């Protein structure tokens, strides 16, 4: 594996995170707290692995991939990328706070912030996969 393979790895990690988040939601709605906890920890781990691979890629690849074609789709792609990027920055402290409340057993605060954290986190992880597909598979930019 080379650094050039990391975008596909990143998309895979985002996809796995999405699955864990969906399963975690499913389990908490059925009051299966043990399975919920395991899924959410797995989502956190895959997100940390994603961030590590993402930073590794961007610190080692000098060239920037820009979405240029098809031109008609570029504004949609850029809007998606902007929302994804802004929320990816916003979600980090939210995820940490949500996990810390759960870790400390403060489940009322955990639930209160998780209502905001989970939908943003699922959006960021899902759109990460979508951005990869658009940039490298559907409309390859090379």
What does this structure look like?
- The protein is mainly α and 142 residues long.
- The chain has a single domain, classed as Up-down Bundle (Four Helix Bundle (Hemerythrin (Met), subunit A)).
- The protein is 80% helix and 0% strand.
- It contains 4 helices and no strands.
- The protein has helices spanning 6-29, 33-60, 74-103, 107-138.
Largest sheet, if any?
none
What is the terminal separation in angstroms? Answer: 20 Å
H/E topology pattern: HHHH
What would you call the structural class? mainly alpha
If you compute it from the alpha carbons, what radius of gyration comes out, rounded to the nearest whole angstrom? 16 Å
- CATH topology heading: Four Helix Bundle (Hemerythrin (Met), subunit A)
Helix percent reads over 70%
| CATH class annotation | Mainly Alpha
- The CATH architecture would be Up-down Bundle
- Total strands: the figure is 0
Poorly predicted ranges (pLDDT <50, ≥5 residues)? none
- Count of discrete structural domains: 1
């Amino acid at each position: 594996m080379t650094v050039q393979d990391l975008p596909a790895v990143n998309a895979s990690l985002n996809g796995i995170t999405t699955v864990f988040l969906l399963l975690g939601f499913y389990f908490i709605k059925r009051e299966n707290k043990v399975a919920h906890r395991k899924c959410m920890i797995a989502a956190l781990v895959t997100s940390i692995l994603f961030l590590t691979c993402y930073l590794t890629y961007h610190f080692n690849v000098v060239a920037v991939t820009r979405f240029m074609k098809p031109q008609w789709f570029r504004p949609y792609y850029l809007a998606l990328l902007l929302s994804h990027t802004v929320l990816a920055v916003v979600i980090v402290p939210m995820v940490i706070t949500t996990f810390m409340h759960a870790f400390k057993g403060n489940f009322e605060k955990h639930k209160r912030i998780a209502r905001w954290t989970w939908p943003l986190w699922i959006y960021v992880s899902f759109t990460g996969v979508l951005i990869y597909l658009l940039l490298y598979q559907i409309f390859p930019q090379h």
